[in-house]
Design goal:
rod-shaped
């Protein structure tokens, strides 16, 4: 079976038209999309800008909350650290005081408690002395107390001359 040249022409022309039709439709669809984008482009841009602003505000609020939480955590950590440091300094201070007190005790130095006990004892003795002095100042009716100055006392108080 031999093909005629006329039948070849019809087959190729229909094939070319069939192949051109989808390509032409794609081209027209692209032009239509571009026309719609130009019409609605400014509206779409405004909508995207508004969505972007809303997202930015939401992100800033979230970031601020996280910053506040981090600040709160750090302040708690700092206060805990300060308390631990205070406790350690107090322990060190007591240890130092104890060692100094032991060293002073070995050297024979009186402690604060020793000085307080001595102060109380001196106050008691002063009170007893004041009481005894008042009793001695009241003249006794049974014995008159009158002493004559002794000669040795007069001699010891007078200035001596060297010859």
């Amino acid at each position: 079976m031999a093909k005629s040249p006329a039948s070849d022409k019809t087959t190729t022309s229909t094939d070319a038209t069939a192949a051109a039709a989808p390509t032409h439709q794609i081209w027209l669809a692209g032009l239509g999309a571009m026309a719609k984008a130009q019409e609605q482009g400014s509206k779409a841009i405004e909508a995207l800008v508004n969505d972007g602003l809303a997202f930015q505000r939401k992100s800033q609020v979230e970031a601020q909350q996280r910053l506040n939480e981090a600040t709160e955590r750090l302040s708690h950590l700092a206060s805990d650290f300060g308390q631990q440091t205070t406790v350690r300094v107090d322990r060190l201070e007591h240890l130092f005081e104890d060692r100094v007190a032991k060293a002073l005790q070995r050297l024979g130095m009186p402690t604060l408690y020793d000085l307080q006990a001595l102060t109380e004892r001196v106050a008691q003795l002063e009170a007893q002395l004041a009481k005894a002095t008042k009793q001695a100042a009241v003249p006794s009716k049974t014995k008159p107390v009158a002493k004559a100055p002794s000669k040795t006392a007069a001699k010891s108080t007078s200035p001596r001359r060297k010859a």
